[in-house]
Every structure is written in C-alpha cells, then in structure tokens.
Design goal:
The chain is α/β, with parallel strands linked by helices. The chain has helices spanning 3-24, 48-52, 56-60, 68-71, 89-98, 111-124, 161-171, 191-195, 197-201, 210-220, 235-242, 249-256; strands at 79-83, 103-108, 129-133, 146-152, 172-185, 208-209, 223-233, 260-268. The protein contains 12 helices and 8 strands. Strands 1, 2, 3, 4, 5, 6, 7 and 8 form an 8-stranded mixed β-sheet that branches.
C-alpha cells in the first residue's frame, strides 16, 4: 500500500464524512448523536461542558481517539497547532484555553473538513483561530513558531510518520511540547489488518507500537517522551471495529484482544534545539 493510496483514501473518507455532517446533521458514523456511535475508539471522549461549548456539528464531525486538549495543559498566551483538525472541535476548545493572548491553528488537507471547521468557528464566535490547508507531512508554518502541537488520532493516518514528526519538531519553539492522542499497539498485529485500507482510514492498521513511537520521536529529536494509556481495547471492542471490513472477525478478533490502546503521547523539543 503506497503513501499516495493511503492519503487518497483518507482524503476521500474524511471529505465524505464532512459532507454528511453538513448535509444531514448526522455524525461521521452515520448516526444523529454525538456519542461516538458506539465506536469503542471515538465514543465518550468529551465531557458535557466541552460538548456544550462548541457547535454541535464540530462534535458530530469528531473522529478522534482521545481528548488532547484536556491533557495538554494549555496556558493563556500559547500558540497551538492541531494536526489534522477535521471539523475543528479540538482547535476551538484549545482556542478558549489559550485565551487571552494565545492562538490556535488547525491544519487539514480536506477541503470539505476545512469548510465545516470554518463554519463551526463562525457559529462559535471564537476569533483567535486560523484554519490552514495543508498536509501534516509539510506543515505550512515557519520554524520555531508553535508552543504546543496537538493531534487526535491523525498521525496514524500518515504513510510517512517520520516526516510528520520531523515537521512537528521543526515548527515547535525550543522548549515546545508535543501532546497528541493516538492509537498504539502492543505486540504483533495480524497482517490482514495492516493490509486493509479501510482500517488505515479508521486509525487502526497504521498504528505504531509503543516502542516504535518512542524510537521515531527520539530520531526526530524529541526528549522527555512518555506514553500514557487512556483506553485499552479488548475482544468485544475488536469485534466492533473489525465488523464489515472484509475480515474474518471470529478468526482475527481473538488475535487483537488487548493489542490496541488509545494513548496520550507527550514529548518536548529541547530548549537548546
């Protein structure tokens, strides 16, 4: 599976997801509630106060695996960048946390998601926000310009994670922080899952192991690296996210029991960098 194939599949799926939300008010999973459609990865990530502080369409468009804004310890005056910002929920939440004096950027490659995010920004009335079109492998911002980078189950979608992390390191200020939610594996993952492009788009097949993630962060120059498990997926969860993917669920599900988790990945750019 080439990097281009992965990128095209991601762009198509997320573009269609944004159109569904804008057209029908249904969530990206095709239901009308914001509860993550029962998906073991994307459900119940935001509390009621967070959900109530952003437009409903921002919540409906969420396809993440965590809540990076709640864990990133954002401070007033900081500049934040959300890689793969989708419908804008984490950007809008971050913008409120860094006010006054701070700013939140959202970066997305999908025109439909950018249109939805800008619409959500208008509805929210949040002004310290800017949504940029671009790819997370080529961040359209200058060196040493960002205090905190967040991301919500997007780095897994890249076919070139080393480049993503190098770019993140480049745009962070010395002493800046990476604070991302992602799906991470432990142990061997069956090859049929990695081959299935639908699972790439759903955050699963592209997941790095915890050791791989740490090694890639170190290679990019990061320090003070840690991975905090936030949700561990078991057999019943595996059945949920494997059903309908053209895979023998009964044969594969036991092999992925406990192998996937949502994790909060922290790292920093050394102050002397």
């Amino acid at each position: 599976m080439s990097t281009t194939d992965i990128k095209d599949a991601v762009r198509e799926r997320y573009g269609q997801a944004a159109l569904r939300v804008r057209g029908s008010g249904a969530s990206c999973c095709g239901v009308s509630s914001a509860g993550g459609c029962g998906d073991p990865i994307s459900s119940n990530l935001y509390d009621a106060s967070e959900a109530g502080s952003v437009p409903q369409q921002a919540m409906l468009a969420s396809l993440g695996c965590g809540n990076p804004t709640a864990l990133a310890q954002l401070r007033p005056g900081e500049t934040v960048l959300d890689l793969g910002s989708g419908g804008g929920i984490d950007v809008l939440l971050s913008a409120r946390r860094v006010a006054p004096g701070g700013k939140a950027y959202g970066l997305d490659m999908t025109d439909e998601m950018l249109a939805l995010a800008r619409e959500n920004q208008r509805k929210s009335g949040v002004t310290n926000v800017e949504f940029l079109k671009g790819e997370i492998e080529n961040i359209p911002l200058p060196d040493n310009s960002i205090d905190v980078i967040i991301s919500n189950c997007v780095i897994n979608l890249s076919g070139d994670k080393d480049r993503v992390l190098r770019e993140a390191f480049r745009v962070l200020k010395p002493g800046g922080r990476l604070a991302v939610s992602d799906v991470i594996t432990r142990g061997e993952v069956p090859e049929p899952i990695r081959r299935d492009i639908l699972l790439w788009v759903g955050c699963i097949a592209g997941a790095l192991s915890d050791a791989e993630y740490i090694a890639k962060l170190e290679k990019a120059g990061f320090a003070a690296i840690s991975i905090e498990p936030t949700r561990l997926y078991h057999l019943d969860d595996a059945r949920v996210f494997l059903t309908g993917k053209g895979i023998d669920v009964d044969a594969i599900a036991p092999q992925v029991d406990g192998k996937f988790m949502s994790g909060f990945v922290r790292a920093s750019k050394p102050a002397a960098a």
